[in-house]
Design brief:
Blueprint lengths: L8 E2 L4 H16 L4 H28 L7 E5 L1 H4 L3 H4 L5 E5 L5 H6 L1 H6 L5 E5 L12 H11 L4 E5 L6 H4 L3 H18 L2 E3 L2 H4 E2 L4 E2 L12 H19 L2
Parallel strand pairs: 1-3, 2-3, 2-4, 4-5, 5-6
Antiparallel strand pairs: 7-8
Length: about 240
């Protein structure tokens, strides 16, 4: 029997999944040099996705008899988030997959969140397709509202970034966050600004000790994010 009192947090624990995630996140930064490498990366990504979906099915079945408090839904920023460590007070599910765009999320909403039926969904997405995210971002919100009418939704802003690869997106992220907040108001969801507390105005990008590569977070970065999200969850859940 899966007991909520045990504060079980389901997430990716298999080392192979973490290794693959880090590997293709790095490839995303440095690029692919050959057709062979492109094929290999595609196969690795598909294998990773298949493994995650199999895990989701297992988790969904185990949680069929009671509700998950919070499902975190997104890309690698969520995938690498150690929910067991940062949210021991809640029953959580990690539904992040590295490299995902808004289009990827739309394709997997059924298995990721609809079947899970959590009390709260926290969504962080956009870093992998900031220029096209609003082509279907509202579809995600419509889907959540229609299929999970009793679930409370938290929309996280895009985060501050840095470095040669990620830092160029800060201005776009700032503009996109205005739109995300407007969507939150339109659908009665909760908007949380992560950009401002992560942004070091003195250097014009994310605080250096919050990130490992300008886009992904250090433990300290996750501590800051957790300190912002936790009181929001407390208000929504009442505990």
């Amino acid at each position: 029997m899966w007991s909520k009192k045990k504060k079980i947090t389901l997430g990716v624990t298999a080392c192979v999944l973490v290794v693959v995630l880090v590997m293709f996140s790095t490839l995303g930064i440095w690029g692919i040099r050959s057709c062979k490498e492109q094929k290999e990366r595609k196969e690795q990504v598909q294998a990773y996705h298949d493994a995650k979906f199999a895990l989701y099915e297992e988790e969904n079945e185990k949680y069929a008899d009671f509700e998950v408090d919070v499902a975190f839904f997104g890309d690698s920023l969520t995938d690498l988030y150690d929910l067991t460590k940062y949210y021991p007070q809640y029953v959580t599910a990690n539904r992040g997959i590295g490299g995902n765009t808004t289009f990827d999320l739309e394709k997997r909403m059924q298995i990721s969140v609809y079947d899970l039926k959590p009390k709260v969904v926290v969504m962080l997405i956009g870093a992998n397709n900031p220029n096209t995210m609003f082509e279907n971002y509202e579809n995600l919100l419509i889907g959540l509202q229609k299929n999970l009418p009793q679930t409370k939704v938290v929309l996280l802003s895009m985060t501050a970034m840095g470095g040669e690869h990620w830092g160029v997106w800060n201005e776009t992220a700032t503009l996109n966050n205005v739109k995300i907040e407007l969507y939150a108001k339109k659908y009665g969801f909760t908007f949380v600004d992560l950009f401002t507390p992560l942004f070091d105005i003195s250097i014009g990008e994310v605080y250096a000790d919050y990130t490992i590569d300008g886009g992904h977070f250090t433990p300290k970065g996750y501590e800051v994010i957790t300190s912002i999200i936790t009181p929001v969850l407390h208000d929504l859940l009442g505990y």
